[in-house]
Design brief:
5-stranded antiparallel beta sheet; 437 residues; 3 helices; 34 strands; globular; mainly beta
Length: 437
């Protein structure tokens, strides 16, 4: 019997720790309330853990930390147990948590159901996390998000709570990250979206973009120029793919790309969830646009990988970019890449060219062409093998440029490197790889 249990444990550990994910992110493990943080250029996912698919109420015995370097292969770094904080080993109330780095340490803020929020610390993102206080940081209420502002002091704030409990609350944290610098105060949110939310609405997420604070819940969000508010409702980040009031999630930026990850229930009436991840865009007018069009076309593929047989790869789905290139557009017009100057570049990782050795034609759709230039298609790096060069002529403001490529097979990282005269050569809408017949 012991050998059987050991075999099952090893199988489960390997399945989770070496999981290759698409959407849902990692299937059938009860992943909920995802908060993603980037530490030392590596992505860490802090998630809740729903115990079983047949639980009619929330049974959550621990939290888990996953990591990835490509958004495809996820490794289980550690399990955070309530036995290591004031909740105790018997607890089944491990609700949502968030994490932050400060002072050379890592801090995990956790919910004890709706009773309180505590804080644990570790010397590395993957733990081991231990209780930093031995008591709640705040009580009552739950579902913490930590915002570290971009001011000189890198001021940190705790935002938490639910609508029924007087709305979301905010308090500045001391630099030690385990004590409050002020009394928590409720956040005022004005607008129909907040008024219509159910009384139980909890699980906020807050971030700052340029000079504006974005406070989200479910699929809706509000904005303010002041972190304390008041906030004005804007609306939904997107439609479809379980973007509703239960879409607990977070946003994160990595390598110049913006992402949205959220959770959904598999079956109505049962508390077992999985997570979806997609590209996300900040429109020219500052609105959040979760790319559900990408999910409509490529849900099971997930982010960070592409198929050369797709009829088009949108430029805004890149894996990485050079600093000055910007994502531009709106929900209505679509998105594209601008501020493309000479020697700027974008990377598309894990492009699957399949097993065929047939040569391909690279074609790119460009707008606002202002200079003679080129698009170099390189393999593996900016100095990698040159697969082909598409030449750009400013005779037309909009054009599709193309070139033949050397034969490529398997999964490869593709770099598009741009050359020309000036800092705004053209705007890149999309591209494709067609097999030569």
């Amino acid at each position: 019997m012991k050998k059987w249990y050991l075999s099952v444990f090893v199988w489960l550990f390997m399945a989770v720790s070496q999981g290759e994910a698409s959407n849902p992110l990692i299937k059938s493990i009860g992943m909920s309330d995802p908060h993603i943080r980037v530490f030392n250029d590596k992505v860490y996912l802090f998630s809740g853990h729903d115990s079983g698919p047949n639980d009619p109420t929330w049974v959550m015995r621990d939290w888990r930390v996953f990591s990835t370097t490509d958004l495809i292969n996820w490794k289980l770094e550690t399990t955070i147990s309530p036995k290591d904080n004031y909740m105790g080993a018997a607890s089944t109330d491990c609700w949502a948590g968030d994490a932050v780095a400060r002072n050379g340490n890592y801090y995990f803020y956790f919910s004890d159901r709706k009773r309180s929020i505590g804080v644990m610390s570790a010397n590395r993102p993957g733990g081991l996390y231990r209780d930093a206080l031995g008591k709640p940081l705040v009580s009552p209420m739950h579902d913490p998000t930590i915002l570290v502002d971009n001011d000189v002091a890198k001021t940190a704030y705790l935002v938490y709570g639910d609508k029924e409990g007087g709305g979301y609350h905010i308090a500045r944290l001391n630099n030690d990250m385990i004590s409050l610098a002020e009394k928590p105060e409720p956040i005022t949110i004005n607008g129909a979206e907040w008024e219509k939310t159910p009384e139980w609405m909890d699980k906020n997420y807050i971030f700052k973009y340029k000079d504006t604070y974005y406070l989200s819940w479910g699929r809706d969000y509000a904005i303010s120029k002041n972190v304390y508010g008041p906030y004005q409702c804007v609306g939904a980040v997107g439609n479809g793919h379980h973007l509703d009031e239960y879409a607990h999630g977070s946003f994160f930026e990595w390598k110049g790309q913006f992402y949205h990850i959220w959770t959904y229930y598999l079956k109505q009436g049962f508390k077992f969830r999985e997570c979806i991840i997609s590209y996300c865009h900040m429109a020219d007018d500052g609105q959040i646009v979760t790319d559900t069009d990408f999910l409509d076309q490529h849900f099971e593929t997930g982010v960070g990988q592409y198929d050369a047989s797709w009829p088009r790869i949108q430029a805004e789905w890149y894996s990485e970019k050079s600093d000055k290139i910007t994502k531009q557009g709106s929900r209505q017009t679509g998105f594209y890449l601008g501020n493309i100057g000479s020697n700027s570049w974008v990377k598309f990782a894990n492009v699957d060219f399949g097993a065929s050795t047939k040569k391909r034609v690279f074609s790119a759709s460009l707008n606002e062409i202002s200079s003679v230039g080129t698009i170099e298609i390189r393999l593996g790096s900016l100095t990698g093998e040159l697969l082909g060069v598409a030449r750009v002529n400013p005779d037309q403001k909009s054009a599709t440029v193309s070139c033949r490529l050397k034969a490529v097979t398997g999964r490869k990282d593709i770099y598009l490197k741009f050359t020309g005269e000036g800092s705004q050569l053209f705007k890149l809408d999309c591209f494709r790889f067609d097999q030569v017949k």
